């Protein structure tokens, strides 16, 4: 998408207002100038992706404690307001509430997170309307190519930081090679943004490393059962399973494995196994399950917003919430590190063009690592570190994530060695 002038972008916004008034119940865009910076936050507060939002109240309290309701930019203090909208874990709803924030609330910047089903429709609406957007918690490829991004051009207003699918599969390979398996891998990839990206990108890399992939094909969710996929993996003798489904779907799959007597040695499942809340109901059958680790309490990074180390952030969350830390905590925190860094650097934080310019120039050390949208590997994107962990029986909590392979990021310490799932 070619760059447009601020005048052209404002014209698009006004044009969208006329279109959006009918679909939003006659609402008109909020164009009146104020001294309050409005920040939109779109997230799946309800629905199957709600696991991703549990840290938001704690993080917003941190923001309030740090800034006290004021942000300084260009020698001037501005009040700010964070307006939260629930996507209901639905891409269409995500687009609708984003349009509402743009046309009715007059936001200067929108932040979003939690899988391509949330991030992509929000980013698309922002790009269309010339509103800066920063996001994380969706792999880079489904974020960029799922939005029909052109690597030669990139986007104008939308920026994203997280790990990439290519980085993920290359992190899994050395971990799998440390396990005693037959090298046969079953792929559980649904018919959604993540599933389509992984089913296309993973098999060539996995097989190029000497493994063999069995792929039963795409499927829609929710699924009443996974008997056909389990049967295919079992028949092929797959001792490794990799895939990407939400927690409720994994529970259905994992229960089906038990019913059919299928006992793979290693199971990695994106989306489903990052969270203690999703692991706890599995009981003894959680032991040994594999997760990618985007952030942990042992990550060697600190916050630009509060100065906390990763361990201090995790401990503060546990004390305030009474719940176990989980990986999204670091990324919820880092999202607001970037948001307020951008607003502080913008020449005029009330002007979307100024905010966009500051967002594009982000160069910040955060609690999840360094964020710089000029580093790629795709335009408008910044890659963050990734290692591999397994759930193991804990002391304070029933299960803890133990980092078992850090081949690609040795600065992130391991806490144990890879082990096959115990079925006793």
TrEMBL record:
Domain called Leucine-binding protein: residue spans: 36-374
Entry keyword RNA-binding: no
Cleaved signal peptide residues: 1-32
The keyword Transport belongs to this UniProt entry's keyword annotation: yes
Domain of life assignment: Bacteria
Keywords tagged on the record: Amino-acid transport, Signal, Transport
PROSITE patterns, sorted: TAT
Family: Belongs to the leucine-binding protein family.
PANTHER family: LEUCINE-SPECIFIC-BINDING PROTEIN, PERIPLASMIC BINDING PROTEIN OF ABC TRANSPORTER FOR NATURAL AMINO ACIDS
Official protein name in the record: ABC transporter substrate-binding protein
UniProt lineage: Bacteria, Pseudomonadati, Pseudomonadota, Alphaproteobacteria, Rhodobacterales
